[in-house]
Design brief:
By secondary structure, this protein is of the alpha/beta class. It is built from 18 helices and eleven strands. Helices cover 42% and strands 15% of the residues. The structure holds S-adenosylmethionine.
Length: 432
């Protein structure tokens, strides 16, 4: 299904009755609708769809609107459904996917955006269900959106926009106050962070960025900056690889390994390659392994920067003859620390998934430990907040061995700390 379909510019206005006049939909709203449908129908990731070439035909403003609409609907889905259900005789989930998507899209614009014209929000949602061959639901969409109640005051919105099981476990784990801040952070648009790549004159880059209208703020961490304004992706520094977009917490993982030039370095779950690039900058060269050939393609494009991409399954015996001085295991995980950036995760994840992930992570960590040299260092990291994927993996795997030491080296929680939620353990192998 195309993400963007060609549509002539819309005509503003909305019918005053349930008999709705045919009109065209704004390209941005249609693209957002298509993204949301693919997230629901195909279990696709919104962030990947929003960066796909299918959106290239939209100008920067329209793309920003598509992102705001799609991400906003996913972040605040529970809150939107609560409002919609006040005007429906059934649950939002029981409606056809096209109908509930059009309703959420309209409700988000009407209640969560200041600048969206209400008439256009309603009429485009009506038109979207019609073009999705759900013409019989057009009247319902029109009536529900026209009579939508206001958002209730207070904090319940963020609570409603998380599944009960996840909220309940976080309340127990972090306490009510930290949990409240975490939920609030998850429903907001997260800041963009960049990393200044080692080996370039950063003062020169800053002057150039400023001339191109991009403002960066220091974060207190070396080389890490928050984008305070402007479009980084359009700059020479970004296109020339002097600046990479990378979440702040993600940037803090590789320094834990204290990599020295010339060391043998392995990133075992490397794609799309943010941390592998950092490793290669420090060591001069790094082996970057991943199971996904598709995801490794991004990494292959970076091959000239000292990365050696390898396709392998890290749950199976590793194919290396010599041991590594430094190993990073940035394990595949639930991603519950990244819900502001990947909001669909919270609607898909089930408690049982954590046990499955735990087993995979333990298998990968065992293989990684086998490949570490005496006196070597290994960092196990996840962007998950769940103990099953973090301390329980470390404790289980290290209980099987002697002469290893470990400590928690990174603990980042959205709402308390800037950036995504991340946890990392530093594991050292004592010399025999
Ligand atoms: C959290 S992501 C890694 C992100 C990466 N380190 C970065 O900074 O860009 C986890 C990666 O593990 C990979 N993966 C999952 N299972 C794997 C396995 N059995 N062996 C190797 N890689 C695996 C996934 O394809 C995914 O790219």
């Amino acid at each position: 299904m195309p993400i963007v379909s060609r549509a002539p510019e819309r005509t503003e206005g909305v019918s005053r009755s349930d008999t709705v006049t045919e009109m065209t939909v704004s390209p941005a709203r249609r693209a957002a609708f298509d993204v949301l449908l693919r997230v629901e129908r195909d279990a696709a990731y919104a962030d990947a769809l929003l960066h796909s070439p299918a959106l290239d035909r939209l100008d920067a403003r329209a793309r920003a609107l598509v992102t705001e609409l799609a991400m906003g609907c996913l972040r605040r889905r529970g809150e939107l459904d609560f409002l919609l259900e006040k005007r429906l005789r059934k649950t939002v989930e029981s409606l056809d996917v096209e109908v509930r998507t059009a309703l959420r899209l309209g409700a988000y614009q009407l209640r969560c955006m200041d600048r969206a014209p209400p008439a256009a929000a309603v009429s485009d949602s009506v038109e979207l269900v019609k073009t999705a061959r759900k013409r019989s639901a057009a009247g319902l969409v029109n009536a529900v959106l026209r009579n939508l109640p206001p958002l209730p005051e207070g904090e319940d919105g963020a609570r409603r926009s998380h599944p009960d099981w996840l909220r309940t476990r976080w309340e127990k784990q972090f306490g009510r106050s930290a949990c409240r801040k975490l939920l609030a952070a998850n429903v907001c648009r997260p800041p963009t962070y960049v990393r200044a790549v080692k080996g370039f004159d950063f003062a020169h880059t800053m002057r150039e960025l400023s001339a191109q209208g991009v403002a960066l703020e220091p974060t207190g961490f070396p080389r890490a900056f928050r984008v305070a304004g402007g479009a980084v992706a359009n700059t020479r520094a970004f296109r020339g690889g002097r600046l990479v977009v990378q979440d702040l917490s993600s940037q803090l993982v590789v320094p834990l390994l204290c990599v020295k030039p010339g060391q043998r370095v392995l990133d075992l779950c490397a794609a799309p390659g943010g941390k592998a690039r950092q490793l290669a900058e420090e060591a001069g060269c790094a082996a970057a392994a991943d199971r996904s050939l598709r995801r490794l393609r991004t990494l292959r494009r970076l091959g000239s920067r000292g990365l050696l991409p390898l396709a392998l399954d890290a749950e199976r015996p590793l194919p290396f003859r010599a041991a590594f001085d430094r190993i990073l295991v940035d394990a595949p995980c639930s991603g519950t620390g990244t819900l502001a950036r990947n909001p669909e995760i919270k609607w898909r994840l089930k408690p049982a998934d954590l046990h499955e992930l735990h087993s995979r992570q333990a298998r990968i960590l065992r293989r990684a430990l086998d490949a570490l040299a005496p006196n070597g260092r290994l960092v196990y990291a996840t962007c998950s907040l769940e103990p099953e994927e973090n301390e329980q993996v470390i404790e289980r795997v290290l209980a099987e061995r002697t002469a290893w030491t470990f400590r928690k080296a990174l603990d980042r929680l959205p709402g308390r700390d800037a950036g995504d939620g991340f946890q990392a353990w530093l594991i050292c192998r004592d010399a025999a």
